Amino acid sequence: MVKLTIDGKEMEFPEGTSLFDACEKARGEALPHFCYHPDLSVAGVCRLCQVEVEGMPKLTIACNTTIRPDMVVHTRSEKVTKAANQILEMHLINHPVDCPICDQAGECGLQDQYMAYGLYDSQVEMASKVNKAKAEVIGPHVVLDQERCVLCSRCVRFCDEITGTGELGIYNRGDRAELGTAPGTELDNNYSLNTVDICPVGALTSRDFRFKKRVWMLKAAESVCPGCATGCNVRVDHEAGRIYRLKPRYNPDVNGSWMCDMGRMTYKDVHQAGRLTEPRISGQTVRWTDLKERLAGLTTAAALKLVVGSPHQTLEELYLLKKLGEGRLCGGLAAADRGDGDDLLLDADRSPNRGGLRILDAAETDGAGLAAMIGQAAGTVLIHGGNPAADAAVAEALAAAGDVIYLGTAENETAAAAAVVLPVAMWAEKPGVFVNKDGRLQEFKQAVARQGNAREDWRLLAEILELRGQDVPGSLKGLREEMTASLELEVDLNRMPGSGFVPGGVNA
Amino acid sequence: MSPGDTKILSARFDRTDGHRLDVYEQDGGYKALRLALTGMKPAEVTAVVKESGLRGRGGAGFPTGVKWGFVPKDAEDVYFFVNADESEPGTFKDRYCLDYDPHMTLEGTIISCYAVGAKLAFIYIRGEFGWLIDRVQKAVDEAYAAGYLGRDILGSGFDLDVIVHKGAGAYICGEETGLINSVEGVKGQPKIKPPFPAVSGFLDKPTIVNNVESVAAVPWILNHGAAAYKAFGTEKSAGTKLWSVSGPVKNPGVYEVPLGIPFREFFNDYLGGMVDGEDLKAVIVGGSSVPVLPADEMMSCNLDYESLSSAGTMLGSGGMIIIPASCDMVELIQVLMHFYYDESCGQCTPCREGTGWLHRIVKKMRRGEGTTGDIDLLEHVCNGMAGLTICPLSDAAVMPMRSFIEKFRPEFEALIKETAPAGPQSRWPRGEQE
């Protein structure tokens, strides 16, 4: 441990700690900065995190300083404050101040730091500013505004150091310096939108999110990406029942500060056309109350012969499905939801909860296997989630089967094949737990309301069990308490560790 | 003392075919190399150079031997760079060394590499010096053929390769870490320090970067001893210095004089005073980046590190710019501000934005649109640039700017229109802030 004094406070940190991080702990807030990012190399170019170290003739930048024993550091002295003020002014002299039409407004490092360290009067005439290109499309997901760029090089370092794709560079010099891609190339990798997250200003914006919503209108829900088995921690930004974007939440054990572009687009499924919103029997829309009797008859222990889950359902839902199947639960099709993975975050398994299927010993099978199970069922078949009927053999078996109940979220082959279709919630419309590829249990919260008359999955399953006369906890908390005990989980499902650090803007 | 008395570096500038190896050898060339490689340990060479008091001639004036001592003792791969990216405005002394006596610098390079343990050296020459690159390459080829480069040099077991590298003409590549980046093939902009190049430079290995003039002095120092070198100059400014003088003096050019001689003597005896009809107004003594001194202040200075420093300027590279009374100082500073604006690499915000801002304000004043407060604003911008960046280019712009205002303020004031409206009223009354 190294002992040093920051702003009069004596503190201890492990050897090798960056002075920037030490100052952040001592102050309770980060030093002003644009270029520093904990997951990238030090560039030291924005020059904002200047601090005064006693015994050193000049101010020094904290991000490129390692703490030394007995250092005496001042972060709020007049000299430091004045330097931050003046350097901030330099950042802003050629800034277009087009905040009213800038998507970053409200979460912008220039705005926030101007309020904290600036508050000077502009001495630059608008007409004398350096003009650069605006709204350049530089890739499938990202738009660049050169005038807003503070050339912090975070995005360049991200592409060099994290993805290793190196699409971005800073061209030209002096105040003509510009961010850009090499001629004839574009910023096109599966992580390109992370550059938008780490851009501290409005230079890089998301083509998907651009001009959709002022950020201060958005509410955030802590969630987990449903796009693959990695389970990146995400924040669902939504307003009035609509999701506008997903942002990564910092979790050093899972995704660090990042998530992939594909994962970010999973929210679109929530708002896709063809969502199931009303229950129906044989194609006829019905009310839930009219359905109760039919459902009770079909799902008695004697009538219900086969229960099929999917790796898209939460751990709680899979647990109740297994109860419904009296200890037997088919996990669905093993070949479903597969794609190409990469070395960074994206997994070849494009479902979020195969880990949950493993915990519940719900074996997956192939199309022929599932078709055979359906063929032998001679009773009710209940399918929750997924779309097994996309497999021709399964579709054929379902057509020949007796009563098929499908709990689903969108129109598909399985919904078409089922006699009873029950609309349930998508991942963002309910709370739950997913188990990622490493067996890590991760909780996600509900972001938006369910659509139409869709039901919350676990409550619907609990109701079916109650119709059967089985006792089921009446709250999610009670259910999780029961599951923690009966599944002998190492984590208490009611006390799941979250992660509160949200990258994006100046706090990253 | 009169012109021509002191010849360490410039002794062979007038020699016919002095750039050829055979002529260099006839004149006693590569004797110092033989001395070092066959009779001295590397540490002994470093000790002699340290003892000689030789200071870096590129501009910063850091003691050369001390710099060599920063290379970690157990380092395996060490690289050596000769900085011939001579681009400080007003400076053209390294060009003379390489043009008229390239083997002097090459011999100094080989000895320096031996001292620091480098097996690969680069001579980085600015791209505009087209003919020099050929000349130096020829000298390197001759040295390989004669066994002064390559494997087992002079039977000592010491190996060295030298690569002549052509720059692309950026001022900032003369900054030692910008130069290293340039050779590494990445954008020519300074690296963040620490780590310093002597510990982690080229390819993250210990690297020493020395100016041509510093390296060129090494053979003489070994041949004659540290004491002989120290006999020239003052206590803190040992040896001789090449001055490259431009401006309307009778005899502009490159002069070698012992450090410490009075400027007045240098000006009168060597430069022959101003051309007829011109008076001396001011001098930028060490290349365009150092503060300007008016004639009277300059006349009381000696040409050494400490005298110039106490007068508020710097010896710098020795690029002496003589400014006549007919010169408009604001016009001159506009030229200089354009230079720094053009050459800022753009990575550090204060320099990237500040150099452009200074340039635009000066330009505006010279257009006749100067307003009350513009001089204060220039000073304000300087305050936001000085000492706050990775490399000294920002300071290099600030030093002339500040000194021009300080020493020649009336010329700036004359450009201000008294009728101009005052600046915008404060929208943030100070009382409302925390």
Task: Describe it.
The complex is a heterodimer of chains A (508) and B (434). Chain A is α+β, with helices and mostly antiparallel strands and 508 residues long. Helices cover 25% and strands 17% of the residues of chain A. Mean pLDDT of chain A is 94; it is low at 500-508. Chain B is α/β, with parallel strands linked by helices. Chain B has 17 helices and nine strands. Chain B has a five-stranded mixed sheet. In chain B, helix 3 packs across helix 6 (102-116). Classes of the chains: A alpha+beta (508), B alpha/beta (434). The A-B interface holds A 42-48, 50, 58-59, 64, 83, 86-87, 89-91, 93-94, 119-124, 128, 130, 150-151, 153, 169-170, 172-177 and B 170, 172, 187, 189, 192, 194, 341-350, 352-357, 360, 364, 377, 380, 383-385, 387-390, 423-424, 426-428, 433.
Topology overview:
The complex is a heterodimer of chains A (508) and B (434).
Chain A: E1 2-6, E2 9-13, H1 19-27, E3 50-53, E4 60-61, E5 72-74, H2 78-93, H3 109-118, E6 136-137, E7 142-144, H4 154-162, E8 168-171, E9 178-181, H5 194-198, E10 204-206, E11 219-224, E12 233-239, E13 242-248, H6 261-264, E14 280-281, E15 284-285, H7 288-298, E16 304-308, H8 315-324, H9 354-359, H10 367-377, E17 380-384, H11 392-400, E18 404-408, H12 413-417, E19 420-423, E20 432-435, E21 441-444, H13 457-467, H14 476-486
Parallel strand pairs in A: 1-5, 16-17, 17-18, 18-19
Antiparallel strand pairs in A: 1-2, 3-4, 3-5, 6-7, 7-10, 8-9, 11-12, 12-13, 14-15, 14-19, 20-21
Chain B: H1 21-26, H2 31-39, H3 42-52, H4 64-69, E1 79-84, H5 93-100, H6 102-116, E2 120-125, H7 130-145, E3 161-166, H8 176-184, E4 207-211, H9 212-224, H10 226-230, E5 240-246, E6 253-258, H11 263-270, E7 280-284, E8 293-294, H12 295-299, H13 305-310, E9 319-324, H14 329-343, H15 349-369, H16 374-383, H17 393-413
